[in-house]
Write a structure and sequence with these properties.
The chain has four helices and no strands. Helix 2 packs across helix 3 and helix 2 runs antiparallel to helix 4. The protein is mainly alpha-helical. It is 66% helix and 0% strand. The longest helix is centred in the last third of the chain and has 19 residues.
C-alpha cells in the first residue's frame, strides 16, 4: 500500500455523491488522522458541549491507543474506502 493510494482514496471520499452515515465518517476521520501522521498530543481537546468534536477526537484516540501506525492506517483507510465506494460514489 502506497501513500499515493491513500491520497487517491482520500480524494475519492471528498467526491462521494452522497455522504456516508456518521459512523462511517467517524471511522474514516480516525483513520485519516493517524494515516496523515497528525499528533494527537498537539490537538486541543474538544469543549464540553462540542459533541461532534468529542466523537471525532475519541475515534482518533482509539486508533492511537491501539498502537496503529501511519502505514497501517493508510492501508485500512484505502480498504474501507473500497468498501464504501459502491454505495456513495458518483455514478
Amino acid at each position: 500500500m502506497s501513500a499515493a493510494s491513500f491520497q487517491k482514496a482520500a480524494a475519492e471520499v471528498k467526491g462521494f455523491e452522497v455522504l456516508p452515515p456518521d459512523t462511517d465518517q467517524l471511522k474514516l476521520y480516525g483513520l485519516f488522522k493517524v494515516a496523515s501522521n497528525n499528533n494527537i498530543a498537539d490537538a486541543p481537546k474538544p469543549g464540553a458541549f462540542d459533541f461532534k468534536g468529542k466523537y471525532k477526537y475519541n475515534e482518533w484516540k482509539k486508533n492511537v491507543d491501539a498502537g496503529m501506525t501511519a502505514p497501517q492506517a493508510q492501508q485500512q483507510y484505502v480498504k474501507y474506502v473500497d468498501e464504501l465506494r459502491p454505495k456513495y460514489e458518483k455514478k
